[in-house]
Amino acid sequence: MATPKSGAPVRGSRTGRPIMVALDLLGRRAALRILWELRGEPLTFRALQDACDTNPALLNTRLKELREVGLVDHEEGGYRLTAHGRRLHAALKPLAEWAQQSRGFSAPSAAASIPPATSSAQAARPRRRRPARQRPRP
């Protein structure tokens, strides 16, 4: 799969708008995890592989993509976020805080217990019952 680029079609968008390009790249397997693990000190390939709990082929592919778009760089001491990558990390902090406070999407809400509204056509239609299953005779 090619590295997504602004102006070119990406998964979920034919326009290639920058937000869609970013979501395509960040939505790829292990991409966010790699960025998260690189938020601190530089990591060697092996340390990053262990931290991300992924295989070397996938890690190589993602690192190549993240390096191509300028989010990650490899220097002495290992892989690290670039200034561009640190800005992305800062932009994702409010999302991380929201997820921590609200437990993401796993917290049950009061709205979840309210049954969905039915249309008048659905309400007027009689419900069909399935015929009872007949058990085979011994």
Please characterize this protein's 3D structure.
The chain has a two-stranded antiparallel sheet. It has a domain at about 30-105: Winged helix-like DNA-binding domain superfamily/Winged helix DNA-binding domain (Arc Repressor Mutant, subunit A). It is elongated and about 75 Å long. Helices cover about 45% and strands about 5% of the residues. It is mainly alpha-helical and about 140 residues long. The mean pLDDT is about 80.
Short summary:
The chain has 138 residues and is mainly alpha-helical.
Q: What is the rounded Rg?
A: 24 Å
Number of helices: 6
CATH class of the domain at 30-104: Mainly Alpha
- What name goes with the CATH superfamily of the domain at 30-104? Winged helix-like DNA-binding domain superfamily/Winged helix DNA-binding domain
CATH fold assignment of the domain at 30-104: Arc Repressor Mutant, subunit A
* Form type: elongated
**Main β-sheet, spatial strand arrangement:** 1-2
What percentage of the residues does DSSP assign to strands (E)?
Answer: 5-15%
In the predicted model, the low-confidence regions spanning at least 5 consecutive residues are: none
Per CATH, the architecture of the domain at 30-104 is Orthogonal Bundle
Features:
138 residues; mainly alpha; Arc Repressor Mutant, subunit A; two-stranded antiparallel sheet; 2 strands
